Amino acid sequence: xxxxxxxxxxxxxxxxxxxxxxxxxxxxxxxxxxxxxxxxxxxxxxxxxxxxxxxxxxxxxxxxxxxxxxxxxxxxxxxxxxxxxxxxxxxxxxxxxxxxxxxxxxxxxxxxxxxxxxxxxxxxxxxxxxxxxxxxxxxxxxxxxxxxxxxxxxxxxxxxxxxxxxxxxxxxxxxxxxxxxxxxxxxxxxxxxxxxxxxxxxxxxxxxxxxxxxxxxxxxxxxxxxxxxxxxxxxxxxxxxxxxxxxxxxxxxxxxxxxxxxxxxxxxxxxxxxxxxxxxxxxxxxxxxxxxxxxxxxxxxxxxxxxxxxxxxxxxxxxxxxxxxxxxxxxxxxxxxxxxxxxxxxxxxxxxxxxxxxxxxxxxxxxxxxxxxxxxxxxxxxxxxxxxxxxxxxxxxxxxxxxxxxxxxxxxxxxxxxxxxxxxxxxxxxxxxxxxxxxxxxxxxxxxxxxxxxxxxxxxxxxxxxxxxxxxxxxxxxxxxxxxxxxxxxxxxxxxxxxxxxxxxxxxxxxxxxxxxxxxxxxxxxxxxxxxxxxxxxxxxxxxxxxxxxxxxxxxxxxxxxxxxxxxxxxxxxxxxxxxxxxxxxxxxxxxxxxxxxxxxxxxxxxxxxxxxxxxxxxxxxxxxxxxxxxxxxxxxxxxxxxxxxxxxxxxxxxxxxxxxxxxxxxxxxxxxxxxxxxxxxxxxxxxxxxxxxxxxxxxxxxxxxxxxxxxxxxxxxxxxxxxxxxxxxxxxxxxxxxxxxxxxxxxxxxxxxxxxxxxxxxxxxxxxxxxxxxxxxxxxxxxxxxxxxxxxxxxxxxxxxxxxxxxxxxxxxxxxxxxxxx
Length: 823
Hints:
By secondary structure, the protein is an alpha+beta fold. About 40% of the residues lie in helices and about 30% in strands. It has an eight-stranded mixed barrel, surrounded by five helices. Helix 16 (about 435-445) runs antiparallel to helix 17 (about 445-460), helix 22 runs parallel beside helix 24 and helix 24 (about 665-680) runs parallel beside helix 25.
């Protein structure tokens, strides 16, 4: 689907509608007298895009395991596998899934919770909805829906890295009624480990109810509960081991920030003021309350601000304030009560004239019988820079530093708002890199990342003024032409981009060549909102890639109609699988030497109740795009084995495998199950694969092929000779059969090059002791050529088209003696 397909697993802004839809679906499926609805009635059928956000949880021995996952859910879990026990998942994901599922089962109904997951120093909040259902074989299955709310919380780890304060972020754990009853540590700095006298491993992800340090006492947990319940801050002190620790709590959105400060020196100030003041690593000074002159400064202040001690003691505090802030800072200082902690940063001026951002802490005290202030300063300049970097990162791509999708949408909205009012046009170009996947597959993802940064650099050079280039994700980019843009200008710009992005890239001595396809949409004709304009530009991009890549296409209304038809096909496909509309037909494989049927290839057919038979060429790519192909492939395996066991013992059945079945990592178990349930001997099952199985995760897929081979199953290479590296595949794995593609068989009698290719493949098969099968045999002349070149096996319309299972016996009788050339 190009860019459109890739966007489907991103943040879904329709999540606010998804939860009510799923609740209603669950309620509608609940039948009178039942405690829970059936799994099939809730979690199968026309879920549409919601299926990407769903995962299935099985409960066994009071423990949950993730059985199946949609594409978005797999990204959230950061795990592509299925049938994963909870303790194998990320702790943050495991916690919210276990608690939400348990509460849904306890309530006998849907349960919505907020999950807090840490990713790259940011806390992301997710809506997690658990839908308990009954399984027809007994027990409970829980469907879990997950989607990001969009809000992120900065844990501010960098902010406190220069202080001795311990910083801990706690996630609230709630019971089935929604009340907080426990807390889990989701982040902390090194100072927290030191202050609590624990190991880092024992603190991170720990629940306070299971720990034994200071924070695990009932009094502390009670203060934390109160802070969450009232959504307010709190501050208190704890005495332990001759130390006094001050706890400062801040609550925001179910997350608690706990700052732990060792205030033991301050508590002992009357006895050890000199030690506290002079040796403190934090800049400190004492001021005369009336004159605002410095009375004392510690070594840290002298070193940090750069003034000599004698100079400091001749100055007033206003002299380290920017002149524009004198009045406000003076008033703030005079308003200080017994203690003071600044809520907002202040600016101070160092001896070299540079400004720093600081937080100040102070208290009133008597200095040699005169009223004064004791002030401590925390330099947060680096923290402010970190905040600025975080704000920048929130709107920019981490790899290329281009604006990201959020900033792109914001700027597009602004451009459209101005242009719509002025009657001007804005152009949006959606760009997808051609052949980029080949770079990743051939050279690895680090090289792919280097290539993306160079693509971004070329884009920057072409975009100026109010225009904007952004990276939307993966190898998808976009450009906004914000000035009044004509179709010709947009087309010329796109043509120039394609030429520039298609020029060779030189990286680490490697010359890389890719291309670009571009879809264009212009306001107001193609849309007046950013969402509509982007959707239409994306459809135009899809058409550009369909038309051969390296091209540009403008959006046309017919594209929208095609998308609608595609969506109808997707809905029909999902219903077809649930309603059992698929069937298998079988095409005979004929042994050339014996002129007898040696096996049948199982071919999937779809008999639509209204539209009749739909071509596999039409529905198979759609099934792959919507994630249905694995389930279909598993069904084909089971159905084919169940049918083949009825045939004579020497007749094999061949089943095609999709690359998606390899990605599921459950293929071997599916094959074992199909053979065991049907009773078909493994030697009678032949599995056909294409070279695409080798294009990604080669080592893992080879391991699966070897496991299948050890079962006794035969492995065939389909469409041999049409790929890029077929010979290398034969070296990688000992295939039992290679199938000569029908494109070589078609012109055997007319083209000498086809004869040469068939001869070479047949000879290769004989040398490697591999059976060769020719596909698409339609004439006796072709059969004569294939027999003459030593081909072992043939299939095609000359013998029979694919027939329903009920006609297999008739075919076997027909070919019982000898294969008829007139068939």
